[in-house]
Design brief:
Blueprint (H helix, E strand, L loop, with lengths): L3 E6 L6 H9 L7 E2 L19 H17 L4 E5 L5 H13 L3 E6 L14 H10 L5
Parallel strand pairs: 1-3, 1-4, 2-3
Amino acid sequence: MDKVVVILRGLPGAGKSDFAKFIAGEKGIDIICEADDYHYNDDGVYEFNPNNLKYAHNECYNKFMNLIEDNESLVIVSNTSTTHKEFDKYYTYAINNGYRVVVTIVENYREGKSIHDVPDEAMERMRQRFQINL
């Protein structure tokens, strides 16, 4: 059986999380790696704090590595990943562990509105640096 990593990229609010859940299907959220998961407080309320960004991404990557080490057949990474550098370590780790990797960009059809209230200036910076290989 093929082992596959799907890397979903896109601006905040594009629908990456929704698409990840669709792809995961019955396997559920246990195979989805998102840095956003580490910005929820104990009451389940999303509280983005830029000071926690490094921690959130480290925890996301740790979850990813654990899923790969457990030989999960499908692993989904769903982060903005606006530059190749931001997802290269996921790609390389997956390839080095015998996974096929599919990188998919989720376009923003939600009129640029993030459900996490990302400021317009931050959204514009992400748009400007978004790298795509065609």
